[in-house]
């Protein structure tokens, strides 16, 4: 399953539209006013699906992930020098990026690829392609991509 995550060009808070291969909207993401990033995810029909909420006052960036109102876990940036790395404490996933921080690979505990996230360049706003191996993981991969983008935005 392939998703295209495109940040809206004109918005006060981070807002994204997510499309499938056919160009149909699958999810929308609205940034909310809060201490740290707070991104609420809705499906194409407008039904609330989840939230990515930044934890503030931590040594390294951390984001809490919620599916509906249920707390799933946290994604944390690891201390590394050349390649970004993140861990998730709810799916036993790890996320490793390249040194340019444009491409990421999500792996499960067995080392199998769950998804690949690639940033497309030469766009007016942040645009990512999410290649998800299993459609049932799409929402979770989207949450990871949003957390990575928010972390990079906070750092810059």
TrEMBL record:
Belongs to the LOR family. This is LURP-one-related family protein. Pfam families: LOR (PF04525).
């Amino acid at each position: 399953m392939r998703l295209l995550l495109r940040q809206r060009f004109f918005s006060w808070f981070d807002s994204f539209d997510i499309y499938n291969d056919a160009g149909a909207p699958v999810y929308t993401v609205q940034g909310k006013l809060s201490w740290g990033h707070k991104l609420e995810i809705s499906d194409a029909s407008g039904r609330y699906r989840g939230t990515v909420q930044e934890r503030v006052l931590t040594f390294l960036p951390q984001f809490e992930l919620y599916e509906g109102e249920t707390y799933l876990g946290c994604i944390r940036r690891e201390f590394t020098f050349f390649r970004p790395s993140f861990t998730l404490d709810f799916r036993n996933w790890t996320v490793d990026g390249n040194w340019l921080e444009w491409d990421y690979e999500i792996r499960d505990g067995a080392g199998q690829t769950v998804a690949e996230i690639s940033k497309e360049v030469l766009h007016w706003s942040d645009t990512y392609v999410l290649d998800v191996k299993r459609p049932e993981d799409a929402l979770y991969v989207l949450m990871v991509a949003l957390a990575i983008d928010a972390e990079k935005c906070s750092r810059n």
